[in-house]
Amino acid sequence: MRLRLAVHLLLVLAFFATDQSHASELALVGAKIYLSPTEPPIEDGSILMHSGHILSVGPSAEIKVPRGITVIDCAGLVVTAGFWNSHVHILLPGLLHAGKLSPEQISSQLQEMLTRWGFTTVFDIASVLQNTNLIRHRIERGEVKGPRILTVGEPFWVKAPIYVKSFLEANRVSIPEVKSTVEARERVRHQIHVGADGIKIFANSVERNGILTMPLDLAKVIVAEAHRAGKPVFAHVSNNQGIEVAIQSGVDILAHTTPMDTPWSPSFVQRMTAAHMALTPTLTLWDVEARKSHASPENIEQGMSKAAWQLQAFYQAGGQVLFGTDVGYIEQFDTSEEFKWMSRAGMSFQDILASLTTNPAQRFGYSTHSGLIAKGMDADLVVLRADPAQSTSAFSKIRYTIRNGEIIYAEK
Ligand SMILES: [Zn+2]
């Protein structure tokens, strides 16, 4: 009896001993590593992680892997910093009313939509703030596996766009319409107070019989109030008049290109970049929408090319591109089409990598600890099955997604 107790105690102690000495330790060995979009890769490199951070990184010959920690052999694989998607929505029916969902249900929905595609940080730019807060608290507590989520909560619109009305009703979600500048200012303050990391305006709302544009004075009040609290403002736009409102009100991030309007002239693009605006291209969205409305293949190709030209004009003028797909509104989770169109817009794989890592980290104030691979940075990493230098489709071939030194997705 006494012996059994002693053995049991020993086992418990042994468990805690291993648990403590190697808690959250992980090593990636023998990978091609892109430390950042601008440095040459390490051809045979290793990374050690400890307590959610990168402990060391360098050529495999120089990195000594301690015994007993989890080692992933990365021969033939490629490692980059964890990806950001700067235009998503935590609005899928499978993520709403999260208080009633099990950790497994939320983890599997987040995996299918985000972590399976390498995203370790996302910016949700319209959802239900209380629900998104609940999901991210469950992730941060370790109960749910998911990315870091930044959110704007409920967007500010003069009228709810026609294409979201029935969705909101069917899912018992209500998002108020903005009635006055006084009320808008109050709501901006409130949302930031209860956890919003940014604010989103609908500079345009698509209605049954045309496109409504938000009055400039209203946009200005909302943007100014968000900036007073140091928060970025995103603008949904459906046409170039919406972009005009975004420029004049001081919006930080344009949430879409506008392929249904005229091409962006050099002077128009110049005004966007002079205003230090960033852009999430959301090119896949236009394909999804066109197919929904049964457009012909020729019309789809034409529309996609127009969107790609707008991205190209913005990119070549030095505008900051943030990878973003509108996933959660669209249900095409696969990112390969977006990378194909970003390449067609003339973006190099290094600049696409920047749009996934260093650009958003810089834009949203995370660059001291996120966006590249270096000692002391967050252990947020993506392991790819192929090299993006060969083809940008490699950015959608994910073997592992690692967040805070923990594997949150592993390809089966
Ligand atoms: Zn969106």
Topology at a glance:
Elements: H1 2-21, E1 26-33, E2 42-50, E3 53-59, E4 70-73, E5 78-81, E6 83-88, H2 103-113, E7 119-124, H3 129-140, E8 148-151, H4 162-170, H5 181-193, E9 199-202, E10 204-207, E11 210-213, H6 216-228, E12 233-236, H7 240-249, E13 253-254, H8 266-274, E14 278-279, H9 283-292, H10 297-316, E15 320-321, H11 336-344, H12 349-356, H13 358-363, E16 381-384, E17 398-403, E18 406-410
Parallel strand pairs: 1-4, 1-5, 6-7, 7-8, 9-12, 12-13, 13-14, 14-15
Antiparallel strand pairs: 1-2, 2-3, 5-16, 10-11, 16-17, 17-18
The structure holds zinc ion (ZN).
Question: How would you describe this protein?
Answer:
The protein has 412 residues and is an alpha/beta fold. The protein folds into two domains: 2-80 and 374-410, Roll (Urease, subunit C, domain 1); 83-363, Alpha-Beta Barrel (TIM Barrel). Helices cover 36% and strands 21% of the residues. It has 13 helices and 18 strands. It has helices at residues 2-21, 103-113, 129-140, 162-170, 181-193, 216-228, 240-249, 266-274, 283-292, 297-316, 336-344, 349-356, 358-363, and strands at 26-33, 42-50, 53-59, 70-73, 78-81, 83-88, 119-124, 148-151, 199-202, 204-207, 210-213, 233-236, 253-254, 278-279, 320-321, 381-384, 398-403, 406-410. The strands form four sheets. Strands 1, 2, 3, 4, 5, 16, 17 and 18 form an eight-stranded mixed beta sheet that branches. A five-stranded parallel beta sheet has the order 9-12-13-14-15. A three-stranded parallel beta sheet has the order 6-7-8. Helix 5 (181-193) packs parallel to helix 6 (216-228) and helix 6 crosses helix 7. The longest helix has 20 residues, at 2-21. It is globular, with a radius of gyration of 23 Å. The two termini are 44 Å apart. The model is unreliable at 10-22 (pLDDT under 50).
